[in-house]
Structure formats: C-alpha cells, structure tokens
Amino acid sequence: MLAIALAGGLPAVIVVLVLLGRGDYPARVLWTVGVIVLGAWIGAAAAVRAHVVHPLQTLANLLAALREGDYSFRARGADLDDPLGLAFAEVNALREPLRAQRLGALEAEVLLARVMEEIDVAVFAVDESDVLRLVNRAGERLLGRPAAQLVGRAAVAVGLGACLAGESRRVLDAAFPADGGRWELRRSSFRQGGVPMRLLVLTDLRQALREEERQAWQRLVRVLSHEINNSLAPIQSIAGTLRALLGRAPRPADADEDLERGLDVIGGRAESLSRFMRSYARMARLPAPVLTPVDVGALVNRVVQLEKRLPVRVRPGPSITLAADGDQLEQLLINLVSNAVDASTETGGGVEIAWDRQQGVLDLRVVDEGPGLPATANLFTPFFTTKRTGTGIGLVLSRQIAEAHSGTLTLEEREGARGCVARLRIPL
C-alpha cells in the first residue's frame, strides 16, 4: 500500500520540482518548498497505508481470537457503507453462533464424559493397531486396573482379545481379569481426529438373566400350581367321599354306581393332568430347526388339504423357496389355520391364506372372519386359552417356531372388517 501511494503521488511531485527548478527562485525558497512537497507526499502515502493496514490488522486479530475460541473481542464503529466496515460487521455476526456452538459442544462433551463414567456398562475404544485408547470406569473395574495403566496398551494384553473378532453383536461367555460370566458385546466403528477407531461395549447379562429366570419360574410355578390344584382338589374330594362310602356298613344299594362314577371322575382328571404335562413337555423340548429348502406354495396347499371343517381360500403369491424346517413350519401353519377356522366357525365366516415377498422377507398371512381378538394381552402366555377345550400352547409353540427361524409371529385386528390376521414374517 505504501509503494502504491508513493507511486500515485510521484508524477505530481516531479512536475512541481521541475517547475520550481525552471523558475528564478532563491535557493532558500527552493529548498523550503521542496521539503514541504516531499514531506506532504511521504506523509500522505503513510496515512493511506495506515488507513488500510490498521483495520486489516484489527480484522486479523479478531479472526485469530475466534480461531482460539475467545469470543470476547468485538469490532466497534463498523460502517456498513465501507467494505472493511462490512467485513467487521460480518465477523461480529459470526461471533455469537460460534460461541453458541462451542458452548454446546463443551456441554455435550461434559455430559458424554459424565454418562460414560456413570453407566454400568464397560466401554473401550481401540485404534487401528488394536491399542486401547479409551476406557470408562466400568471398564476399569472389569479389567481390574486404572485407566492410566490401560490406555496405550494392546487390547489383547489386557484381556480384550476375544472382543476384537467375530460378529459385531453377540453374546459371549468370557472371563476377564476382574470378573467373568455372560456378556453382550457390541462393536462399532467411529473416527476421532480423523483416525479410525473401534468402539467395544460390554454389558453384563447376568443380572438381567437372573431377573428373567426368576420371573419365568414365578410364571411356571403359578401355571403349574393352578393346573395341578384344579385336578388334585376334585380327586382329593372324591377320594374322601369314596373312602367314607366304603366304610359305611351296610353299604348302600347304589354304592357300586357311586364308586364307578367317582373313579371315572378321578381317571378323567388324572388324564387331563397327564395331557397338560405332555403339552408342557412338548413345548419345552422344541428341537432346533433342521433347515432344508421349503416351497411356500406347496406347504400352504398341503396344510389347507388337512383342514376338513371349512374350505380355506388360498390367494396364490410369488414362487418362494426358503431354508427352513418344513415339519415345524407345517405345524405352525396348522395351528394358525385351526385357530382361524375355530374363530370363523363362530360367525359363519371364511378363512384365507396369502403370502408375498417384502424386502427379502416372507410375509404370510392367515386371515379369518371371526369375532376378532379378545381384549387380552395373554394370547402368547403359556397355557392361557380362550377356548373351552384348548391347551394354551398352540400360539406359544408357533411363536417359538417362528423365532427359531429368526422370524416373528403377530396377531392383529383386520382393518375395516371383522376378524383377525395372523402374520408370519421370516427372512429369506
């Protein structure tokens, strides 16, 4: 800027000095006027430089403060009609959003650090070389060492080798330096400072499993107690009556008839209890599925032919073959069709089976025109039934078969019509 200002005034200075040199002026006047002209020329150039450079230095200082995260500086007297003043105004306007973003980032970072320390889940981060770079308080307890002794060491050396390979989400039985048991492992990737990192999250499943086990035992004992008491109470009562009858002398004329009826009741209740125990054993011993190619259309047609009480409509879908246990899927479909026919028989309606492919998933539906779902949340509770002669294991067994095939079984009301839809979804 100084060179440009000097160059801009140089022609005028040369002209003035040339004119003074041609005139008949005393030397003293020439020197005085020359000094004044040169001084004005250099001073004006320096003023132009200062007028431009000083605001630029101020702008540079403001930007440096923003880069360092100091948002207390602010340019004053910015004139929006001046280009530099407009730049000052924009920097001032940038200050508040940057300040808010930095404050939010700091608060989020503090919150994340607090959550990491307080959660009862072990969290680790390892870099590309499988070196531990981050560990929270639960991870310290799991490995039995403070973070200062863990960060910077190889993950294999501190006992995390089993977590670095295999499926990214799974349940594993592992023994760590300070604890052992069953853990749920979740592994994911992220970047920190541009460096790829892997996040390892280990959740202790023992407490949750113990709670689920306790609740399962409570449900089992409650159901078994109910069913066994329902059979033993009349057996005990009738046995006492028969014993009293045998002790009477002389015996009544119809004693043999009473004895026969009482023994029939005892035998019937014993058979009912035996059926109950067989049903429970069947549900508890469901084997793992043996996967073979299963043609969905052929399976549906085979099951439909087994139902003789009511004609079942089949709405053909696409040709689909999936890897599944054909016997188990057939039993599942038989249960669904039987329930649908039972429901439709009450109202004189029909039953329809349809299937299609939705994003790599088999979506099979058994639709009935019955009274709809009962207002209960216990449809999938073992031994719960709304039928007078039902066992209460059909839907439970069907859902177990669906889940064994990584699928789902749901019951829902039909939209805009009376009845129910049993929906089976299995990945293809």
What does this structure look like?
The chain has 428 residues and is of the alpha+beta class. 53% of the residues lie in helices and 19% in strands. The chain has a five-stranded antiparallel beta sheet. Helix 9 runs antiparallel to helix 10. It is elongated.
Taking pLDDT < 50 over at least 5 consecutive residues as the criterion, the unreliable ranges are none
Query: How many extended strands?
Result: 12
Count, helices: 10
Strand content: 15-25%
Could you give a short account of the major beta sheet? 5 strands, antiparallel
Give the strand order, joined by hyphens, for the main sheet: 2-1-5-4-3
Structural class: alpha+beta
Reconstruct the topology from this structure.
Elements: H1 2-22, H2 27-67, H3 83-118, E1 122-126, E2 132-135, H4 137-143, H5 147-150, E3 169-175, E4 180-192, E5 195-204, H6 206-247, H7 255-284, E6 292-295, H8 296-306, E7 312-315, E8 321-324, H9 326-347, E9 351-358, E10 361-368, H10 394-404, E11 408-413, E12 420-427
Parallel strand pairs: 7-9
Antiparallel strand pairs: 1-2, 1-5, 3-4, 4-5, 6-8, 9-10, 10-12, 11-12
Helix pairs in contact: 1-2, 2-3, 6-7, 8-9, 9-10
